[in-house]
Amino acid sequence: MTKNSLKLLHFADFHLGAGKTYGKIDPKTGLNQRIIDFLNSFDFLVNYAIEERVDLVVFAGDAYENRNPNITLQREFAKRIRQLTKKGIKVFLLVGNHDLPNIEKHAHSLAVFDALETEGVTIGRLPQIYLMETTFGPIQIAALPSFSKSQFLTEEKEPNGLDEMEKLSELEKIIAQKILFHLGEMSQKIKTEYPAILTAHVSLAEAILGSEQKMSIACSEPLLHSEALLKREFQYIALGHIHKQQVISSNEPPIIYAGSLDRVDFGEEREKKGFYLVEIIKENGNFKLKEMPQFIEVPCREFITLNIETASENPTEEILQAISKNGIDQKVVRVKIKVQTGQSDSIQLKEIRDALDRAFFLHSIEIETPEEIKKTRNPLLTQEKNPIDALKTWLNTQNLPEKRKNELLLCGKLLIEKYLLEKEQRE
After folding, report:
1. What are the φ and ψ backbone dihedral angles of 374, each rounded to 5 degrees?
2. In which element (H, E) is residue 257 found?
């Protein structure tokens, strides 16, 4: 029976293994509770895809927290991919920056699907067009995976006569030019007899950033502009890398970041999480979207910050009342309390912790007095900043020559890269 439309699901930035500081070990499974939460969100997507009888699931990169996931995480991810393919749903997995190895010749974290020749699964490791057969028929997927700098250094000579910061900037320009070159090549090769989409793991200048800033703290990267992706050869542009779900352009074709599937940290506290349902039809000989892609929200674990400012002579009672008025059941909670001068020692922390026992996980209780608030650091140095941006902010407050600032910034980047590498090797 011929199908009238092609249905696909678009999701991205799963980051399985992230956010473990917001949960405890589950005694039944031995897994961190937040890993179970992430898997529950994936299960919701899988069940939705099966119920809606979609033809294709497109994942736009970053399957795991880091490039060296343990065997348990790989098994749980693969089990859910297999659930989809057993129902005849094809799966396309794009390689993101968190999937790439440190060493160019090493395998990326999704390579096991290729090695096992997993039926129904295609890995987008190279910038090229992949033709996938679905229950609807063939579909062309133009892939722009994440690129490591070492890939481009093998093709390009390292810029001479520049300091280290200038070399990094120049390299980013080279990478951006190469990405646009590959995009142009692919768009020219699209065949009109089949539907076509583009999936890319990239940063767009127009995007509102999220927690991905902190998860790639050592990596400067090229920024593209959305108009560069607006190729009429594609019916849809499925993006990954930015954790905040957002529609960059609703023109034809729409450019959409699906965002992360579950909350990584408090930086995503107010963001909806989920995936997109996309339907492509053929009308008057041309492929087009049936309607604007629909965002499907995942009922994932909520994060909540309680901001409490006391004004009475009994701050503990005031705090307890504020807690009772907020729904904290089964949520990840942090509490920020501002008390009057001289009241911090009278706070009954045990009573407050007991009142917060209904929470899924209590992340922290912060207590500040007016004196401490006055002594706080630069207000621009917030927890939402990644270390490199925080270092930049601090350096801009220092009376140093510009060249010295750049040298210190470079040293900071190198130290963080070294730390991350050693951390991944230990894990």
Report:
1. -65, -30
2. strand 255-257
Nearest to 391 by CA among 375, 378, 372: 378
For residue 234, give both structure tokens: 């594609």
| Helix extents (H) in 294-364 | 315-324, 349-355
| Both structure tokens of 11 | 């999701």
194-to-141, 155, 278, 330, 371 alpha-carbon distances in Å: 10, 33, 16, 47, 67
Q: Which of 48, 61, 62 is CA-nearest to residue 9?
A: 48
Calpha distance 144→298 (Å, rounded): 26
* Long-range contacts at 254-258 (CB < 8 A, ≥ 24 apart): 254/289, 254/292, 254/293, 255/204, 255/226, 255/229, 255/230, 256/10, 256/293, 257/12, 257/207, 258/10, 258/11, 258/12, 258/13, 258/60
Cβ pair 229, 203 in contact under 8 A = no
**What is the C-alpha to C-alpha distance for residues 305 and 269, in angstroms, rounded to an integer?**
8
For residue 215, give Cα distances in angstroms to 62, 69, 128, 186: 11, 15, 27, 30
Q: What is the pLDDT of residues 362-389, one digit of tens each?
A: 999 998 887 555 445 555 555 556 677 7
Calculated CA dihedral for residues 236, 241, 242, 248, nearest 10 degrees: -20
Dist CA 129 CA 144 (whole Å):
9
Nearest C-alpha neighbor of 336 from the set 364, 362, 359, 313: 364
245-296 per-position pLDDT tens digit: 999 999 889 999 999 999 999 989 999 999 999 999 999 889 999 999 999 9
Q: Look at residue 313 and give its three-state secondary structure.
A: coil
Triad 187, 221, 196: Cα angle to 5°:
20
Residue 56: HSE in the Cβ half-sphere, 13 Å Cα cutoff: 29
Would you mind telling me the total number of residues written for the chain in this entry? 427
* 163 Ramachandran zone, left/alpha/beta (phi>0; psi -120 to 50): beta
CA dihedral 141, 144, 97, 381 (to 10 degrees): -120
State the Cα–Cα distance between residues 258 and 242, nearest whole angstrom: 8
Which residues share a beta bridge with 199? 143, 238
Measured CA to CA in angstroms, residue 366 lies from 30, 209, 353 at distances of 30, 26, 12
- pTM, whole model, 2 decimals? 0.83
Which amino acid is it at 392? Answer: K
